[in-house]
Write a structure and sequence with these properties.
alpha/beta, 15 helices, 8-stranded mixed β-sheet, about 30% helix
């Protein structure tokens, strides 16, 4: 369709682009080197061990995010539950992800290597829910049936800044309890309230569900700026509401960012649900699918170009709407069923809107530069990243060199390289991230 699209721009697409320079952004790092040892120590805490009794049927809730070491962490949690005499099984806790089907959600887990043979317990995937009451405001509370009928629930979730709202609790244990374990029905209802209410609704609903279900333990994961496991913390259910805000503060401090004051064109090699709920993290780019931007601290960016979708996103391009330009290659990979199911459930339809589609990388870069204001091809400031999780090593145009020369947290790591294209206008330069 778009491969044959003829677009005309003044002056054509043969513009002289600046060379790109590899740089390293320096962040504070901490890392868990011994995942089994840390998980064992966390489950060895008296207040955690007290939650699992011999013979208990224990539902281990696992979400759909691309978390580093997820399979190993889940396998270790399962092992510790068995050591305490529990009988664990996995339930997907991912709202409407996986196409809002039981099979699709089981497949999402399988794509992360979470299958019975790898984690040591069965996977029980269902979209059936139980209504466990209402909030005082009348909001109904839904919960995964398998989890609800278990004797104890252990939620394994990464704690991080959310991609659509800001509050004392964002992405993490309580959001998994409320939306992930709410399945499609619960996720749809909560999202219908609007992201502008999430900062209040998630903590209120989280507290209510912890009280009305067999929630036992939350296993919180914090990642560092290199997308590595920085902390694993097991929290007894009665302490989750008190502890999670502090975990979020630590997660925010550990996040990577773009250490530049202003960006004309940001080129993103890949986006996907395994990268961020919004394909690319709004905490990095400053744009959200909800349209809410307060609290999303990022350098101003004039144009965002996306070159590809990850394989693990299975065509789910939710968040593509916050880009300005994509190529025909990206458009042809979009599974609109997956993408629309996700965005309709979230009520943030902006995330599913299609940016300007151009035939090639060359056209995409040229249009991005030509539509950036107050710059020329000779002065434009371009930043090129693999994705919003990997920001330690990136490329910047040589037009930044004077600006970053005396920055201790930025190190130039190589010589400038030209942006080159093949005869089809596709990128020929091989960037090493």
């Amino acid at each position: 369709m778009f491969e044959d699209l003829q677009v005309k721009v003044e002056g054509g697409f043969d513009i002289r682009l600046p060379n790109m320079v590899p740089i390293k952004q320096k962040f504070q790092m901490s890392k868990v080197d011994d995942v089994p040892g840390v998980v064992e120590a966390e489950f060895g805490k008296t207040e955690v061990r007290a939650k699992i009794k011999p013979g208990m049927k224990v539902a281990v809730a696992v979400g759909s995010r691309g978390i580093h070491n997820l399979k190993e962490i889940v396998a270790c949690v399962v092992r510790e539950i068995k050591r305490m005499g529990g009988e664990p099984f996995i339930v997907p806790a991912m709202g409407s992800h996986g196409g809002a089907t039981a099979e699709g959600q089981a497949q999402v887990l399988a794509d992360y290597g979470i299958i019975e043979s790898s984690v040591g317990c069965p996977i029980r995937s269902s979209m059936e829910t139980v209504q466990v009451g209402h909030l005082p405001s009348g909001i109904p509370l839904y919960f995964d049936q398998f989890a609800y009928e278990s004797d104890a629930i252990v939620a394994v979730s990464r704690v991080k800044p959310h991609t659509d709202f800001k509050g004392t609790v964002e992405s993490g244990l309580q959001k998994m309890i409320v939306i992930g374990l709410g399945k499609h029905k619960g996720a749809s209802y909560i999202h219908s309230l609007g992201f502008d209410r999430f900062h209040a609704v998630i903590p209120e609903a989280g507290k209510a569900l912890i009280a009305r279900t067999n929630m036992a333990v939350g296993v919180a994961i914090i990642e560092n700026a290199r997308d590595e496991t920085a902390e694993i913390v097991a929290v007894p259910a009665e302490s989750i509401c008190e502890t999670e805000p502090e975990l979020l503060i630590r997660a925010k401090a550990a996040m990577p960012k773009l250490l530049l004051d202003q960006i004309d064109v940001l080129v993103v090699e890949e986006i996907g649900k395994n990268i961020s709920g919004s394909g690319m993290d709004p905490n990095i780019v400053g744009r959200t699918g909800s349209g809410l931007t307060e609290g999303f601290l990022a350098p101003p960016i004039q144009k965002i170009v996306v070159r590809d979708l990850t394989d693990k996103t299975h065509g789910n391009a939710a968040g593509i709407g916050i880009a300005d330009i994509i190529t025909a290659k990206v458009f042809n990979k979009i599974d609109f069923g997956y993408t629309y199911a996700n965005c309709i459930t979230s009520t943030a339809l902006l995330g599913a809107k299609i940016p300007v589609v151009l035939r090639s990388d060359k056209e995409a870069l040229a249009v991005a530069v030509k539509t950036s204001n107050r710059v020329t091809p000779e002065t434009v400031k371009i930043v090129w990243i693999q994705n919003t999780l990997k920001l330690e090593r990136i490329y910047v145009s040589d037009t930044y060199l004077g600006e970053i020369a005396n920055r201790d947290e930025i190190v130039v790591e190589g010589e400038p390289v030209p942006i080159e294209f093949d005869h089809r206008g596709q990128l020929a330069t091989l960037f090493q991230f």
